[in-house]
Structures are given as structure tokens and as C-alpha cells.
Write a structure and sequence with these properties.
heterotrimer; A alpha+beta (about 230); B mainly alpha (about 450); C mainly alpha (about 80); A: about 230 residues; alpha+beta; Alpha-Beta Plaits; 4-stranded mixed sheet; two-stranded antiparallel ribbon; about 25% helix; C: about 80 residues; mainly alpha; about 0% strand
């Protein structure tokens, strides 16, 4: 069984934000008006986190794309009162929109703040409806949503593999953010597959994970920056 | 044994039999506020939780604050009344009933608050069909339901003899008192049954009450969030709950004493005793607050410190220091001084404590959310009109519940007061004699 | 509304049975969740522990209430 994970090479990431846009397009993330976004109601499964290091004038900003960490020990799942968020056998942390009661306990419990709530009924214009991804279900008001590691793509890949009588393996599927990244800073694959490039990168000396000391065991790795050109 | 022409305790029965205009006026005003709150809630249901001030990352706000606050107030009641009954404190007699009523009403209000907070209240049934007892939210559901059931029964059982008094007087509506009095005739056997049941319940109610607020604190302390993930949260919340509960009880007692002219029942000494209890709880509360923040500060963990400074010197500093003043300094000054420990002073201190404890709940819930671990911009939470009006609605439900209860039932337990007059002096004398040291040479008995 | 003794007694019995229906409902609910957690192997130990505490509490409350009701009816016919 695969264990899907992601590695982001911070040396290659330019902070361009293409992954954010691609994610919104791919996953039918609802449009939120600028006024509401100002109030903190915007939904963005992939987010750019800016770590500011050093004092002026020696400031350095580190960009870190932040999807859901798909923790192996997820704090959000433990607290859900209705089995609306769960971890499947392949390690992906999913959210069942049709079951979520909108208590937002998982949002409060997530140390990475990756969960988003639909504060209003999402509005869809005709042009957005036309360009929607038919594979991803739309969320209604009052439920929590988050990055799924493009789970719909996994399902498609699995169907294809099954037709050939095989299992899904590393390389059969990738996420929209990894697909889009112009510098190929994001690689996605099976962390348990010894032949996988992603698995190899995740074991690199440069690899670290966000808030590692919490023991949440995230499956999103980062390759530390600046070590090639010290 | 009860007599319809019995006027000994008429001040307790008068408000039920001769309802004044003030009652109807109060009800109209309260109902108006509640209707407005309902309207705002329906609007929230239709539009979505966007009408509140909640956002990312401040996912919880007023509704959860008020949930914790109201459930905290509920500890006034049953817990205090059970402890006083259990310790055979004779001065409890005119107090227990009001304390129990507070619990029943406030628990119902508090228990509904998480539903106000739900994004999809229409899917409430999911908790029954596919709930997970592992989630602290479900611990709450179970624990609050148990406390509500136990405290309603605990309110009802000691009410039966009083209902029978009203039934025998022929108070209207007759069928209600006939129905609720369960055939009470005051026979020795019936008294024995009732007393046995009350003593079972008062022992049971104490651990249930403690479990309720412990479990509510677990909602926060079971997460990994800075400012929440603390082992003393359980007892800290329970202490705060009893603290705010006593303050609420004192306010209710002072209000009813004034409105129903109960000076003959609720005497200075009752207030003095309860306010000393309030003072002790204030010190205990401060001790817990001090321990909670000192450990955080000493460890100096960066995420913890972000929340710490937000409370001590940041945006929440005004609330934080008001809380310290209201919960600690103010009651300490007023209640430790004999001259100010009079009813006006006690009322002021109690109001201060209720406000301070509400602020404490706010200070626990919001700052941990506005300061997420990752370097996002700091969250801002400004409660909207919807949240304020639902808060006002909840307070009105509390007052309305009390006013309606007082319309139909005596707010002071008549039979217990009478029992006190008949037996207390003898019993207490006997009890004291039983533990007085035996003089040297005399036979011990 | 005319309410004779018999009607009131019937009403009392109905209201008393409500608490038992309530307690039974709570127990069914908790057992359902227990079953679910076993099925999904979702920390059944915690669920069992909570069920063991919660169900007896509710049952005890209902027993106490019933005891008082029965006791009051009996005491009434005995002494007078």
C-alpha cells in the first residue's frame, strides 16, 4: 500500500503562487469577495507562508507553500465528533463534506491552520460553472474543507491501474500543485516506495517538516533552503 | 399536616397567588428580546455563519465563550446545594431552591450554545447516528445531559412537598399541582422515601457536576494549541465555574429578596456566609490563574509566549487586567473588610465576578486562536450584532426562566424552612454535644 | 379542563415512563456509538470506558425517580 507524501524544495521555490492558483482551479474552491477575504473568510487549500528571518536591513523572507500536512498522527481527526474527517489506509486525511456538522473543532485543533470553513453559501458565476472540475464535489455553506492531496486524481489513477489489474504506484498520480509548479519544486509520490524520487528526497539531510516537535508526523516535507549556495 | 389557612410562610406563596403587573411587564420585555434574538438566529441559519465576527483563524467566538460561561454558572446551583446539604449546613435552607433553579435553567441555555455555533445544525442527528465518543465534544454532550437530568430531578424532588402545600391551598392551576405533587400527604413513610432519594442524588450530583466542567475544559486542553494544552485546565475550569456560580446565586438572592420582600428569610448572615465562600473561591481562582500563567512564562516556549503577551500586554490586555481586577482585587478588597461586606458591597462584588468570569472565558477561547503557530497575520475577532443579540437573548431566557419558575413555585423551600424551625435547633445542639470533648473522669457517651 | 384523580394518575404514569424512554434512548445511542467504534476500530477502549460510566448514571437517576413515585403512592395508602 502506498503512503502518499509531498516534498517541497525551498531552494527551487520562488514563491510565485502558481500552486495556489492551480489548487483553486482544480478543486473548485469557492470565490470569496474581497471584503469578506479581508475579514479572513477566504478559502485557500494551498497557502504561501512567509517566514521573516533577521532584522532590518538584513531581512530574509522564506516562502513555504503550505498544503494540508496529512499528518500520520492528525490532531484534527481525534476531535471530530462525527467521523467527518478521517485518515484512509494510504495516509490521506479526508473530509466528508456531507457529514460535517460545522462545529469547527478540527479548525481549532489543527496546529497548521489548514482547515477552512464555508461562512456563506458559495456563489458561482456562469463562467466559473463552465470551467469547473467535474471530478470534485462542491461544498455547501457551513462545512469545513481542506486540501485532499487531489484525492479525485488518485481515484482516477486507481481505476486505470485496476483496469490493468495493478495497484497504484508512485508516479501514477500527482497533485495539481506539483503538476503546475514552474520550477518543479514540489514533488509528490509514495514515501514507502524505495524507488520513488519523492521518498528519496524526503530522506535527504536537508529534509524537515513543519512543527516537527509536535509529533503530528506530517507527510509534507521541506528541503531546507540556501544549503546549495552558502 | 399542611393547612390552607396557614399564613406562617405567606410571603413565599403570595407571589404565586397574587401575580402583579410587574410580572407581565417583565415577561413582555424579555419575550421581545428573545424574539429579536430568534430572528437574528434564523437570519444566521439562512445566510450562514458569515454574519458573525468569526473567521479564519478565529473559528470559535462568542457562542463557545457563552457556552463555557453559562455552563460555569450552572455550578452554582446543584453543586453548592448538594455540598451544603451534605455538610448539614443549617443556613442552607432558604438558599438551596434558588441555587437548583439556576442550574436547571442555565444548563439548558448553555447546552444549546454549541448548536448555535454549528454550521449545519440540520445535521445534528449525525451525532446520534455516527458520533464518536472519542471526541471531547461528545464527552460534553453526555456529561451535560447527565447533569441536566440529575439536576432537574434534584430540583423536582425537594419541590414535591411544596407543590403539595400549594395543592392543599387550592392554588390555580389546580391540575398542575395535583399532577406534580405525586400524592404527597406528608406521611412519615413518604418523608423517609423522599429523604433517602434526595441523599442518593446529592451524592451523585457532585461528581457529575465536577465532570461537566472538567470535560468542557478538555475541549480546549485536549488540543495541542498554545494556551489551551494545559493539565490544570480541568480543576481550573471547575474552580472558575463554582466561583461564577456563587456570584450568580448571590445576585439572584439579592434580587428576589428585594422584589419579593424576603428579608425575613434571607438574612444578612446568609449573604455574609456565601460571600466568604465567594472570597475563598476568588483566592483559589487567583492561585490557579497564577500557576497557569507562571508555568507558561517560565518555560518561555515561543508559541506560548505569543499568546501570553497578547493577553498581558497586547490586544487583550485591557480585558485581561479588567478580569484580574474584577475576579481578584475587587472582591478581595470588598469582601475581606467587614464594613463593606454588606449587601450593596456583596452585590457589587458578585456583579464584578460574573463580568470577570465571562472575560476569563473570552480570554481563554479567543487569544489562542488569534495567534496561530505558523506566521500568518494575527487574527482579529470583532463580535457582530448577531452574536451580541444572541447573547442578550440567552440572558433574557435566563431571567424569563426564573420569573416563570417564581410565578408557579416558591423560590424558597417552604417545607425545609419549616423543618428547620421545628427540628434544627434540637438537632444541631445534639450534634454539637455529640462531639464536645468528654471531661476527664466522666463517662464517655 | 376537568381533571379527575384517575386521569391525573394516568398522566403521572405517562410522564414517569418518559424518563425511562429517555434513558433507554440514551443507552441505545451510546451502544450504537460503541458498535460503530468497534466496527471502525476507532479507539473502542475509550468508548467502552465512557459507556460504562454514562449508562449506569442515567439508569440510577431513573431508578431514584421511580422509587420516589412508587414510594409516595404506597406511603399514601399505608398510613392514612
Amino acid at each position: 500500500m502506498a503512503r502518499w507524501g509531498m516534498v517541497v524544495d525551498l531552494d527551487m521555490c520562488t514563491g510565485c503562487g502558481a500552486c495556489i492558483a492551480a489548487c483553486k482551479e482544480e478543486n473548485n474552491v469557492a470565490y470569496v469577495s474581497p471584503e469578506e477575504a479581508e475579514k479572513g473568510r477566504a478559502i485557500s487549500w494551498m497557502q504561501m507562508v512567509n517566514f521573516v528571518e533577521g532584522e532590518f536591513p538584513n531581512v530574509h523572507i522564506k516562502y513555504m507553500p503550505r498544503p494540508c500536512m496529512h499528518c500520520d498522527n492528525p490532531p484534527c481527526i481525534k476531535v471530530c465528533p462525527v467521523h467527518a474527517t478521517f485518515k484512509d489506509e494510504e495516509g490521506i486525511v479526508g473530509q466528508i463534506y456531507e457529514r460535517c456538522i460545522g462545529c469547527r473543532y478540527c479548525m481549532s485543533a489543527c496546529p497548521y491552520t489548514v482547515k477552512y470553513f464555508n461562512w456563506f453559501e458559495p456563489e458561482w458565476t456562469e463562467s466559473t460553472i463552465a470551467s469547473m472540475n467535474p471530478d470534485v464535489s462542491l461544498r455547501k455553506k457551513g462545512v469545513v474543507e481542506k486540501c485532499t492531496f487531489c484525492h479525485h486524481r488518485l481515484q482516477k489513477a486507481r481505476d486505470k491501474a485496476r483496469a490493468k489489474g495493478m495497484e497504484v504506484v508512485d508516479g501514477d498520480y500527482t497533485t495539481a500543485c506539483a503538476d503546475t509548479c514552474p520550477t518543479q519544486a514540489i514533488s509528490f509520490g509514495d514515501l514507502d516506495d524505495p524507488n520513488s524520487n519523492t521518498a528519496r528526497l524526503s530522506k535527504s539531510k536537508r529534509a524537515f517538516r513543519m512543527l516537527e516537535d509536535l509529533g503530528t508526523e506530517p507527510k509534507v516535507f521541506y528541503l531546507s533552503e540556501g544549503e546549495k549556495n552558502v | 399536616m399542611f393547612d390552607a389557612t396557614d399564613y406562617e410562610d405567606f410571603p413565599l406563596i403570595e407571589p404565586i397567588e397574587n401575580t402583579g403587573k410587574a410580572f407581565y411587564r417583565t415577561v413582555v420585555v424579555l419575550v421581545a428580546v428573545i424574539v429579536f434574538a430568534l430572528f437574528m438566529y434564523v437570519r444566521q441559519l439562512r445566510i450562514g455563519l458569515g454574519v458573525t465576527g468569526l473567521n479564519e483563524p478565529v473559528a470559535w467566538g462568542f457562542y463557545i465563550v457563552n457556552f463555557v460561561f453559562f455552563i460555569g454558572i450552572s455550578h452554582a446551583g446543584t453543586l453548592i446545594s448538594a455540598i451544603l446539604r451534605l455538610s448539614k449546613a443549617e443556613w442552607r435552607r432558604p438558599i438551596t431552591r434558588m441555587a437548583e433553579v439556576i442550574t436547571a435553567i442555565v444548563l439548558a441555555i448553555g447546552g444549546l450554545h454549541p448548536i448555535l455555533d454549528l454550521g449545519r445544525p440540520d445535521r445534528m442527528m449525525n451525532i446520534f447516528q455516527s458520533g464518536r465518543l472519542q471526541s471531547p465534544l461528545l464527552w460534553d454532550v453526555t456529561s451535560i445531559t447527565a447533569y441536566f437530568t440529575a439536576s432537574t430531578v434534584y430540583l423536582y424532588l425537594p419541590l414535591i412537598p411544596d407543590i403539595a402545600i400549594l395543592r392543599d391551598r387550592g392554588t390555580k392551576p389546580k391540575w398542575l399541582y395535583e399532577f406534580l405533587s405525586w400524592n404527597w400527604k406528608g406521611t412519615e413513610y413518604q418523608k423517609k422515601v423522599l429523604e433517602r432519594a434526595i441523599s442518593i442524588l446529592m451524592v451523585m450530583v457532585i461528581p457529575i457536576a465536577i465532570s461537566v466542567h472538567t470535560v468542557i475544559s478538555y475541549i480546549f486542553s485536549m488540543t495541542l494549541q498554545p494556551g489551551w494544552h494545559s493539565t490544570i485546565f480541568g480543576p481550573y475550569f471547575v474552580v472558575g465555574a463554582i466561583f461564577s456560580g456563587i456570584a450568580a446565586l448571590l445576585i439572584v438572592m439579592i434580587a428576589f429578596r428585594k422584589v419579593f420582600h424576603l428579608e425575613g428569610y434571607l438574612k444578612e448572615i446568609h449573604f455574609s456566609y456565601l460571600s466568604i465562600l465567594l472570597l475563598i473561591m476568588s483566592l483559589l481562582w487567583f492561585y490557579f490563574t497564577f500557576s497557569e500563567y507562571l508555568t507558561g512564562y517560565f518555560g518561555h516556549e515561543p508559541y506560548e509566549m505569543k499568546v501570553f503577551w497578547y493577553k498581558f500586554a497586547g490586544e487583550y490586555a485591557p480585558y485581561f487586567w479588567t478580569m484580574i481586577f474584577c475576579n481578584f482585587l475587587f472582591p478581595l478588597i470588598i469582601l475581606s473588610n467587614k464594613r463593606t461586606r454588606k449587601i450593596p458591597g456583596i452585590l457589587a462584588a458578585s456583579c464584578g465576578v460574573v463580568v470577570g468570569m465571562w472575560l476569563e472565558r473570552l480570554i481563554i477561547v479567543v487569544p489562542s486562536l488569534t495567534n496561530p503557530r505558523l506566521p500568518y497575520p494575527q487574527g482579529v475577532y470583532i463580535p457582530s450584532l448577531t452574536e451580541w443579540s444572541l447573547f442578550a437573548g440567552a440572558l433574557s431566557v435566563f431571567v424569563l426562566g426564573f420569573v416563570l419558575f417564581a410565578k408557579f413555585f416558591p423560590v424558597i423551600s417552604i417545607w425545609e424552612v419549616r423543618e428547620g424551625r421545628e427540628r434544627a435547633v434540637r438537632e444541631v445542639t445534639e450534634r454539637i454535644e455529640s462531639y464536645l470533648p468528654t471531661p476527664h473522669g466522666a463517662k464517655s457517651g | 379542563m376537568v381533571m379527575n384523580k384517575k386521569n391525573i394518575f394516568i398522566m403521572q404514569i405517562i410522564s414517569l415512563s418518559l424518563i425511562w424512554i429517555f434513558v433507554a434512548g440514551i443507552s441505545v445511542w451510546i451502544l450504537n456509538l460503541l458498535n460503530l467504534s468497534l466496527e471502525l476500530s476507532d479507539v473502542p477502549s475509550a468508548t467502552i470506558a465512557i459507556s460504562l460510566v454514562a449508562i449506569p448514571v442515567f439508569v440510577t437517576i431513573a431508578i431514584v425517580l421511580t422509587y420516589v413515585f412508587v414510594g409516595l403512592q404506597r406511603g399514601n395508602s399505608q398510613d392514612r
